[in-house]
């Protein structure tokens, strides 16, 4: 009893030891969960690498000591590696988590990890994009909503804004203030809010606009007729301004890159005038315009011809002199002009010949020097300064005194003792017949007075004195000709003579009978209007064809007679601006309507103040789009075609784009009866649909179809009614022909190409086929038809046969070369099957004596071929063999292509023993048995074609050669044999590959040659016939 008890204890202990040895769970976790801070709404993962164990431990988690039940939770799940994944974290997920691993050996627990959930801050106020003018102040506001502490910072283009640039009002709000912004402050600013959960950001852009300003300005120019004038004008600003030119008094604006007549404005704003004409004289204004504002600069162009140029000006002329005989005399004459004048001297009206009189000489570019005066030298001397522009003369008398009394002598004054010339005279007043001049000068005690000279190119009178010894610096020149150009110059006179003249005044035009404006008023207007005096405030589209324009005048209206409202259509791409004139009465109103605009079209506007012929500085520019409207034209190209007796096809084209007048939303089609106009169909289609098929028409009836396009503003005009008649003569499928015309052409082209290819390929194929046939016919009796192992099927199907065994085909490279007589033949394996399979047809070589020929690698047999069939249990098969015929059997080559290759009756690679069998079962059944020649015409034909060639071979009785050392003999397996109770008469030949050995050296009494499993084993090495 005690022994039994000890045995029981020992047994339990042994089982316990075996249990613990079989079940193991280690103590250490590969990965422990860690305290984690999760973001509300995000995904978080708690790591857990359970310890190794046998069996594999089960992992589960506990939260706050309770096992997590995840059966009904899609939000929380345990991953394959043991980690706990929580989707869309909530505040309820906060707690302490612990990972457990359990198997039969026990349970292990990880450390406790705490999960806390934090919420990202949310923006209450985000900074907004700001556009300001340079010099203004900017403020960005940013405020967040958060239950936790938040840190707010600002960045500009990924660079943190320097401390002090932002001002924190309280914990969750900040403002970024920028004073007197410049172009460098422009950029993208980001407000960043950070807390323990992470950070969020919001961006806003600051755009700093700068007024247009000129980098290069034009200057006044004076050129000759047909000359070239170039005025530079380069502007900058943000946004980049548009530069255009205009001639004062003309309403033509020429923008950069455009031409007008012989005026060309280059891309950089330079104005180039080629072939300048007289009428081009005047002020040219360059303006730079943007949405911020504008600026203008003007330059004067004077185009002169030879006739318009003043004649030479004699700055210092000769004076009256009385000199003693045998003394020397100097008669001064200095002149200037364009072109440079030539100086000649006359005495008493006769030209002096300097070459015949050695005492006379011209020095200092015009001064006449007379040496050793004679009494005959007395007379009136005249200095003549001439050029292409004209001639000016100055005369003085020279008296030669014979007496020796010096009291009456008077020589020429010293030029240095003459007064300095006055400043250029200014025009202060112009009337029809008078001009008032004023000038400045340096006071002098010996001043006698001022002399005023004038010249008019219209009168061609040369320089004439119009005022003499004026005592003050103002003079009114009267008795002038109306509407005539004049220029003036002033000389100062003292006791020594006349000074050099002042600079010539600008050309002044006296007023004509219709003139009401003096030039000085225009000059004042140019001065007052050269600054910005008006601002374009607002553009409001009132209707689809009108815009309300609002402005503000920021300067005195004294020098404003009105303003020009200029506008252009952006869609056309033209720089031509239309013009609307607003006079002074309406100017004070502050707004106007611009009508007759195109519908749903974007326009550019700006304003230009004017006073008489003087245009002021333009205002800022603005853009606006007119409102949408209904289409102003119906759909076009409407075609209706009958498909059959009950349906028709309708197609159309949209209205012209300029008549959309808005965003085209779609079409509506109406079908009414042609008899009573009753509405039968109304369909609404989208804008991309431009065709439809109308169904349920009544044969023999007539209908009217109308189509209309519509926008958000409504429907446009309907198209004209298209008559639709469903009659026998129209019930043809014209639509299908029309619709598929292109497809028909493609199909026709395809067939034409196929016909061309067939016409080319068929002759090639026939030539190649004939060549193969001729090649086969040319084979002599000593050659053997070889098996081509190069052909391989793409894939091997195991469904074609019914055998339970699968075999791989053996490629040619695995066989010994047939033509090598010294190479031993490999042994044919003894293929065994568990259960012999009966065959419907079997050939037996009974009591055969054979020889394996070295040249043909074939076995010649002397026994009779089977003329009966041992049907075994396949009694439904009939005897299909005929006496004295060459191998009445094709062994099927088992491959997915169902080709019959290298068989006794069908050797050619291109031939395929194929029967019209569509049923897959038929193929499987054929694969189970041998394929008969009579069932496959191509094999039969091949056999018949070669039967005459082989007939001589069949009648021979070959001799046996047992002494062949390169052959091996053996006995086929017993299960491959058939019964011996049949008589065999026909002689045949069995082809055995050289790489297939027979196992015994003795003769064979019977050999089964068509065994299914044997055929499958040797693969492509089937039975073939030698040539005769």
From TrEMBL:
Pfam families recorded: fn3, I-set
Disordered: annotated segments: 950-977
Stored SUPFAM superfamilies: Fibronectin type III, Immunoglobulin
Protein localization: Membrane
Residue ranges, compositional bias (Polar residues): 961-977
UniProt keyword list: Disulfide bond, Immunoglobulin domain, Membrane, Repeat, Signal, Transmembrane, Transmembrane helix
Protein name: Uncharacterized protein
Residue ranges crossing the lipid bilayer per the database entry: 743-766
Any single GO BP term: anatomical structure morphogenesis
Fibronectin type-III domain boundaries: 421-513, 532-629, 634-729
Residue ranges constituting the Ig-like domain according to the UniProt record: 27-116, 121-207, 212-304, 311-399
Membrane topology: Single-pass membrane protein
A Gene Ontology term for the protein's cellular component: membrane
Highest taxon above the source species: Eukaryota
């Amino acid at each position: 009893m005690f022994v039994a008890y000890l045995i029981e204890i020992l047994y339990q202990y042994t089982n316990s030891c075996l249990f613990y040895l079989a079940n193991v769970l280690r103590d250490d976790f590969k990965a422990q969960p860690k305290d984690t801070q999760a973001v509300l709404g995000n995904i978080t993962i708690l790591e857990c690498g359970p310890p190794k164990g046998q069996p594999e431990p089960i992992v589960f988690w506990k939260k706050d000591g309770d096992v997590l039940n995840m059966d009904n939770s899609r939000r929380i799940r345990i991953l394959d590696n043991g980690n706990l994944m929580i989707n869309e974290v909530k505040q309820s997920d906060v707690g302490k988590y612990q990972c457990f691993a359990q198997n039969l050996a026990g349970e292990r627990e990880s450390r406790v990890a705490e999960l806390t959930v934090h919420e990202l801050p949310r923006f209450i106020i985000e900074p907004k994009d700001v556009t300001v003018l340079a010099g203004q102040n900017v403020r960005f506001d940013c405020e967040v909503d958060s239950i936790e502490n938040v840190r707010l910072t600002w960045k500009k283009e990924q660079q943190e804004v320097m401390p002090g640039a932002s001002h924190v009002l309280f914990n969750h709000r900040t403002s970024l203030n920028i004073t007197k912004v410049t172009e460098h402050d422009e950029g993208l600013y980001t407000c960043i809010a950070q807390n323990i959960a992470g950070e969020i950001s919001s961006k806003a852009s600051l755009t700093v606009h700068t007024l247009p300003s000129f980098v290069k300005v034009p200057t006044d120019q004076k050129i000759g007729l047909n000359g070239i004038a170039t005025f530079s004008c380069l502007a900058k600003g943000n946004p980049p301004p548009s530069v255009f030119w205009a001639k004062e008094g003309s309403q033509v604006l020429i923008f950069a890159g455009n031409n007008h007549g012989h005026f060309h404005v280059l891309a950089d704003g330079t104005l180039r005038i080629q072939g300048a004409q007289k009428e081009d004289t005047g002020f040219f204004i360059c303006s730079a315009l943007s949405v911020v504002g504008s600026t203008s600069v003007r330059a004067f162009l004077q185009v002169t011809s030879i006739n318009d140029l003043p004649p030479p000006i004699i700055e210092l002329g000769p004076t009256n002199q009385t000199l003693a005989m045998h003394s020397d005399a100097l008669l001064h004459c200095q002149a200037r002009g364009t072109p440079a004048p030539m100086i000649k001297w006359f005495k008493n009206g006769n030209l002096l010949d300097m070459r015949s009189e050695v005492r006379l000489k011209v020095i200092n570019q015009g001064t006449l020097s007379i040496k050793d005066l004679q009494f005959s030298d007395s007379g009136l001397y005249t200095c003549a300064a001439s050029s292409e522009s004209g001639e000016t003369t100055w005369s003085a008398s020279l008296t030669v005194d014979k007496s020796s009394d010096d009291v009456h002598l008077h020589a020429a004054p010293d030029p240095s003792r003459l007064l300095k010339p006055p400043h250029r005279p200014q025009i202060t007043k112009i009337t029809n017949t008078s001009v008032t001049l004023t000038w400045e000068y340096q006071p002098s005690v010996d001043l006698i007075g001022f002399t005023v000279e004038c010249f008019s190119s219209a009168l061609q009178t040369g320089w004439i004195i119009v005022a003499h010894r004026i005592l003050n610096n103002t003079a009114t020149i009267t008795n002038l000709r109306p509407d005539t150009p004049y220029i003036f110059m002033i000389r100062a006179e003292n006791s020594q003579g006349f000074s050099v003249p002042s600079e010539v005044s600008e050309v002044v035009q006296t007023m004509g009978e219709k003139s009401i404006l003096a030039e000085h008023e225009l000059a004042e207007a140019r001065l007052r209007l050269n600054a910005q005096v008006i601002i374009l405030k607002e553009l409001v589209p009132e209707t689809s064809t009108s815009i309300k324009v609002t402005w503000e005048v920021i300067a005195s209206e004294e020098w404003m007679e009105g303003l020009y409202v200029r506008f252009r259509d952006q869609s056309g791409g033209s720089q031509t601006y239309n013009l609307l004139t607003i006079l002074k009465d309406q100017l004070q109103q502050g707004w106007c309507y611009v009508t007759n605009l195109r519908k749903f079209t974007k326009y550019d506007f700006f304003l230009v103040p004017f006073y008489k012929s003087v245009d002021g500085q333009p205002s800022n520019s603005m853009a606006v789009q007119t409102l949408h409207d209904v289409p102003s034209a119906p759909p076009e190209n409407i075609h209706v075609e009958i498909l059959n007796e009950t349906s028709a096809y309708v197609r159309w084209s949209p209205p012209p784009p300029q008549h959309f007048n808005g965003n085209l939303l779609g079409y509506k089609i109406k079908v009414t009866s042609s008899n009573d106009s009753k509405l039968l169909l109304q369909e609404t289609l989208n804008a991309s649909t431009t065709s439809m098929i109308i169904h349920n028409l009544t044969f023999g009836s007539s209908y009217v179809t109308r189509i209309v396009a519509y926008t958000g503003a409504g429907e446009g005009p309907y198209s004209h009614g298209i008559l639709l008649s469903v009659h026998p003569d129209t019930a043809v499928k014209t639509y299908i022909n029309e619709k598929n015309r292109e497809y028909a052409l493609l199909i026709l082209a395809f067939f034409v190409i196929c016909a061309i290819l067939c016409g080319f390929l068929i002759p090639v194929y026939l030539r190649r086929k004939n060549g193969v046939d001729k090649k086969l016919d040319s084979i002599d009796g000593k050659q053997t038809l070889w098996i081509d192992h190069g052909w391989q099927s793409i894939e091997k199907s195991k469904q074609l046969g019914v055998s339970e065994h699968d075999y791989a085909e053996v490629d040619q490279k695995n066989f010994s070369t047939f033509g090598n007589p010294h190479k031993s033949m490999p042994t044919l394996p003894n293929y065994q099957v568990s259960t012999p399979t009966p065959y419907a047809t079997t050939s037996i070589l009974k009591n055969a004596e054979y020889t394996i020929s070295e040249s043909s690698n074939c076995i010649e047999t002397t026994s009779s071929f089977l003329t009966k069939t041992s049907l075994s249990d396949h009694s439904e098969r009939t005897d299909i063999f005929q006496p004295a015929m060459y191998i009445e059997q094709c062994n099927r080559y088992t491959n997915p292509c169902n080709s019959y290759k290298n068989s006794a009756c069908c050797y050619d690679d291109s031939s395929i023993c194929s029967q019209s069998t569509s049923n897959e079962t038929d193929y499987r059944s054929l694969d189970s048995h041998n394929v008969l020649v009579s069932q496959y015409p191509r094999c039969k034909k091949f056999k018949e074609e070669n039967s005459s060639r082989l007939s001589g071979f069949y009648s021979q009785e070959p001799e046996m050669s047992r002494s062949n050392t390169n052959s091996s003999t053996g006995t086929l397996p017993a299960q491959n044999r058939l019964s011996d109770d049949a008589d065999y008469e026909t002689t045949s030949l069995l082809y055995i590959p050289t790489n297939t050995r027979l196992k015994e050296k003795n003769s064979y009494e019977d050999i089964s040659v068509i065994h299914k499993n044997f055929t499958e084993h040797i693969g492509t090495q089937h039975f073939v016939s030698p040539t005769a």
